[in-house]
Design a protein that fits this description.
single chain, alpha+beta, Nucleotidyltransferase, domain 5, three-stranded antiparallel beta sheet, 10 helices, 12 strands, 45% helix, globular
Length: 365
């Protein structure tokens, strides 16, 4: 792990220096050549004691990070720190899978693994990634290629309205309570962080205190992921069609008053899990336009009110008099819009539909 981190940081420093001092672009092939020369240096002889595969994979990951940076998808790559843990990736040439045990390159003994799940019968791992979390927990991830059987078709269809008070409201009237995992551990986290701030930098006691803080963060993350996986799996199993709003969470967390609550709710992760699980199990996942007025539109007659502040949780339609729960009504509208998008592929905004229709007419003319 330390060798992979060292090679990654040295390559990042070399690429940064080459650009700022000589305006030269250094790619993966150049850093691979640098790695060969580093192994010949007297003070870096320990790099020869580990497999070269995770070192090369680290350089490939760095190349991917720069590709994402130049494409505008990510920020400039950062140096890896020891306290943040790390990972080492082994491709098929650098490990051996025998009798359900993992033998890494240049290791005579198999890894002592406490398996969280069994591999599918006949599956052979193509990549193994060993990870170390900041809390000191080691994990091993095995990548296998398997066929996932689609679930039996379900007659149910559901629309989801994500929120904070309730994590989500369903179009069938059900509301999922927000577990607020960060709030549950906030007092404990504050206590260990205050203890960390009192420790002298570089001391052994500070290292112990840092591990305590990391473990509390791990508890929060584990509880949140466990809840979301169980919830999204249930929704995918029960419903054939799932419709959600295409929320811009990145922009929404810029609101200082709601940023913590939105981040704790993990809307982006919820949508991500729903999307890939629907692809796995043969379900239909639909995202509707984020500007669709799902909360302000009456699900009974279609009337849209001009304003509906966030503190108004229930309202009556001025046109037909129907009483609405704000979140459930939004979920019903999201489902209706999602079905329309799924059937005809049209946008749910009338002004866009007109512009697209006009554009199609011009092309025909």
């Amino acid at each position: 792990m330390g060798c992979a981190r060292l090679v990654y940081n040295r390559a990042l420093a070399a690429r940064t220096e080459a650009w700022y001092e000589r305006q030269e672009r250094v790619g993966y092939s150049e850093t691979s050549t640098m790695l060969t020369s580093w192994k010949k240096q007297e003070d870096l002889q320990f790099l020869n004691e580990v497999s070269c595969v995770p070192l090369q994979q680290g350089l490939r990951h760095l190349q991917t990070a720069f590709t994402n940076f130049f494409a505008g998808r990510a920020k400039y790559p950062n140096f890896k720190k020891k306290h943040y843990g790390g990972n080492a990736e082994f491709t098929k040439s650098a490990f051996k899978w025998k009798d359900g045990k993992v033998y890494l390159a240049k290791c005579t003994q198999p890894l002592e693994v406490r398996w969280s799940r069994e591999l599918p019968e006949g599956a052979e791992p193509s990549t193994i990634t060993v990870k170390l979390s900041p809390s000191g927990r080691w994990t091993v991830s095995l990548l296998v290629d398997v066929e996932i059987a689609a679930l039996p078709e379900s007659p149910n269809q559901i629309g989801l309205d994500l929120g904070i008070t309730s994590l989500m409201a369903l179009s069938n009237g059900e509301k999922i309570a927000n577990p607020k995992t960060f709030k549950a551990k906030r007092r404990k986290l504050r206590k260990v962080q205050k203890a960390l701030s009192r420790k002298k930098k570089g001391s052994n006691n500070r290292h112990k205190a840092r591990l305590k803080v990391a473990k509390v963060h791990a508890e929060i993350s584990d509880a949140r992921n466990d809840f979301l996986h169980k919830l999204t799996t249930r929704l995918v199993r029960e419903n054939q069609v799932i419709a959600v709003e295409d929320l811009s969470v990145k922009n929404m967390v810029k609101n200082r008053k709601l940023a913590l609550s939105i981040s704790d709710a993990s809307w982006g992760e919820t949508v991500r899990q729903l999307e890939y699980k629907c692809n796995w199990y043969g379900r239909t996942f639909v995202k509707i336009d984020r500007w669709f007025p799902s909360s302000k539109r009456c699900g009974h007659c279609g009337y849209t009110v001009d304003k509906l502040p966030l503190n108004v949780r229930e309202w009556d339609c001025p046109k037909c008099g129907t009483h609405h729960d704000r979140d459930v009504n939004a979920a019903k509208n999201i489902l209706a819009a999602g079905l329309a998008v799924n059937v005809c592929g049209a946008t749910v905004r009338p002004e866009e539909s007109k512009s697209r229709k006009a554009g199609a007419m011009k092309q025909k003319l």
